[in-house]
Design goal:
Low-confidence stretches: 164-170
Order of helices and strands: EEHEHEHEEEE
Number of strands: 8
Helix content: 10-25%
């Protein structure tokens, strides 16, 4: 993961060695973003999870504007997962910690229990290709869209996910 002017990355020593997997996005409103970041940061630090967040107010405001890429709107914090058990535990734990908060919806992700927690399977980098292959050995695209339908056919689907995966290949 690269360091840039838009995001502040933390716990890079725990960044997964894989190129794509499930990741969690946390949304916020301007008036609750600091409290949400404190809760999520404490959780990630305690559980040795790599994450990033939008660090400057001007970029945070831009990320909620109509001029921002629609598939990226509302993604204040991103947490990177390395295995399904940690992913499931993190989502359910954060839900208990964050369920009182309201925030903007993230259109390209699946929402967990009408909360500010969203998730998707995707690339951890700027690549639009997963590090997975289809049954025909084709690369699978990471289609970053404004509706969450781009889940590859995976063996590891979280227990709380109810939508069937579909395949998009190169």
């Amino acid at each position: 993961m690269k360091k840039d002017i838009f995001y502040e990355s933390r716990n890079l020593e725990f960044f997964p060695e894989i190129k794509s997997f499930w990741k969690i996005h946390i949304s916020s409103f301007f008036n609750n973003k600091k409290e949400i970041l404190k809760i999520v940061s404490n959780y990630c630090n305690k559980n040795k999870l790599s994450y990033k967040y939008i660090k400057k107010i001007k970029f945070y405001k831009a990320s909620l504007s109509k001029d921002f890429a629609p598939s990226q709107v509302g993604k204040y914090i991103t947490i990177y997962m390395s295995n399904i058990k940690v992913f499931e535990k993190t989502v359910t734990d954060l839900y208990l910690l964050l369920k009182k908060f309201k925030a903007t919806e993230i259109f390209g992700d699946f929402q967990y229990k009408n909360s500010i927690i969203f998730y998707r399977y995707g690339s951890f980098f700027d690549s639009f290709v997963y590090d997975l292959k289809s049954e025909n050995n084709n690369k699978i695209l990471d289609l970053r869209q404004t509706y969450p339908n781009n889940i590859p056919n995976l063996k590891e689907v979280p227990f709380f996910h109810k939508i069937k995966p579909i395949k998009k290949i190169l």
